[in-house]
Design goal:
The structure holds two protein chains of two kinds. Chain A is built from nine helices and 21 strands. Chain A is α+β, with helices and mostly antiparallel strands. The chains are: A alpha+beta, B alpha+beta.
Amino acid sequence: MSEIRLEGISKRWGKKVALSSVSLTIPERRFTCLLGPPGAGKTTLLKILAGLVRPDAGQVFFAGRNVTKEPPRRRNVSIIAQDFALYPHMNVYQNIAYPLRLKRVPKDEIDRRVREVTAFLKIDHLLQRDPTQLSGGEQQRVAISRGLVKDADIYLFDEPLTNLDYKIREDMRAEFRRIQQETGQTIVYATSDSIEAISMSDHVVVLNQGHVVETGNTVEVYQSPAALFTASFFGYPPMNLFQVKYEQGRLRHPCFELPLSLDNLVSGRSYSLAVRPEHVGVSDEKPEADVVFQAQVHLVDVIGSDAIVYLRMGEFQIKAFVPKTAQLDIGETVWVGLNKVHLFLYDSDSLHTDLCEVS
Amino acid sequence: MAEVKIEHITKVFGGTVRAVDDVSFVIEDRSVVCILGPSGCGKTTLLRMIAGLEEPTSGRIYFDGRDITDLDVRERDVAMVFQFPAVYPHLDVWHNIAFPLIGQKMERKLIDKKVREVAEILGLTDSLYERPHALDTGMKQKISICRAVVRDPMVFLFDEPLSNVDPNLRVDLKSTIKTLSKELGQTFVYVTHDQSEAMTLADRIAIMKDGKLLQYDTPDEVYDNPVNPFVGWFLGNPGMNFVRAVVQVADGGTRVRVNGTEYQANIPSDRTGEVLLAIRPEFIRISSQRQGPNWIEGICNLVEPMGGRNIVHVGMGDLFIRVKTPADQTFSIGDTVYVHFPDNYVRLFDANEATA
């Protein structure tokens, strides 16, 4: 119905390249996240999809139809911006009904749809309020309702949760996922937050500096990132990376060595070894593991039921994701254990080399 | 170095808004206390009253037993670090740190010694002669902290010092503050809306909402034994779950009814009747099979993968609970699932208490 295909999309803002020859397919009826740091080109890409920005080069197809030159109103997309603005002189009901009134939808049809979407987002008790009387989370729900009420083919969201409190974000993440799963709509959602991407999306497009770094099933991309950039960015916290050198059948790092016989490794060359913080073992006793070394506890950062432990080995650092109940004191020396099944090796020379799982 | 005693402090703005409402607690000498709460809870107003930047409507504040409520900010001997790092752009880092000492007309050699001592702890030794504009917000905030430290005040006050620091630099600064609090052995009062900062840094946490102090205890205690559903919900990621239940005393234990399942339990609470049964997502056990009579049926509504974990939403009647599972334990939407609430982790609240 509305699979999106981009072919060779480029866009510059003055001298700055926002998007550089982006080609990708966004599946229909799925939740797709555009994930990347600020400045990666996420917003520009969304605006090109909405028709608010004309690309310098390349083409956009919706369900095979070339829409590159079509104006926004003919594309049937709905875009919800990060800095959404509710009309202050209208109450919640009027705010949500506004896009339908513009389209001259009959009054009783408007009423039915507004009530449906607001019940869905649990703000149906706020319809007569003014926006100024609402909390940040409620305002956000109104903006989302206004976006969803339009019955579009594609819904585009630009970092809608960034300015909200942590506890509201927690609820809204689940809400977004629930909406998509219950309605089966095509959603494209831009974010720089790894947690949002992993928890909400089926499909992820990793962007950096205007380039598509990698795309795929979100869980698969998380579990085995094909690109070094993804490894260094996707995750909270992202993967630990170590510069290692391959010499005499071993990967060498100042803190550890790992014997390894792989044909495609070049002796004398540098690689990046990566491991997820949740796969870093921390213990008081020397563990049985493929890579074992000692480190000092630098900080135990408690996050709900878990903690991120920052460990130091001289000038090097490794992060481990452990239950909050693990008893670790700052300054304490502990053992770190890593196993081959959890290690990934990247070619340091290039960002886009194939992943090579070391096991 | 001082004990801070806050006694029935109230602040009313504009005659009606009770920003801080009858708050009393004691901050022990040489301890780190975090005042934690959602935006608008009154935490910053309270800190500003301790600093002397705001006058309480009623109540008293004592430093080491001495009533300082009517003292001017200058006479209180506190040092404050704000949300936005305050640095003098025309001075190098050394002069930025030394500024309060130069004002005191301290001997140059002594100033230099003090500046270097504190710069060493905060890792600024190599930047002493740089101008601050070249430094990132994390470094600038370190300068603000150094300047507070050299003054050697009775109490250090921090107002969300990390909220404008780049997330990547936040950890470094958090660990710096943690180290500093240990090395200096001084009294730190630290305001934040970030539960993780509070859990990581504090000896004790004061949780506020709507101007009121809800709970004041160690991080483990507020997390494990919240005084009300709000505290349970506010702490944790995600926070505590709440389901309606009926609890009765029976056979030397308790009889619990939840979502149509009745089972024998031994819950450490004497509350009975209609209650709000609360439990943290990480303590709930979940399975696709009923593992025993005390397993409760529900429906998997949603699965949120979180990387190293999954959060499974389980619908129970018109409520749902969140269950934290390992990444390899997952369920499909619509699956019938069974959950078990281990007795030790169950907390009971009044059925009428608000959860958020």
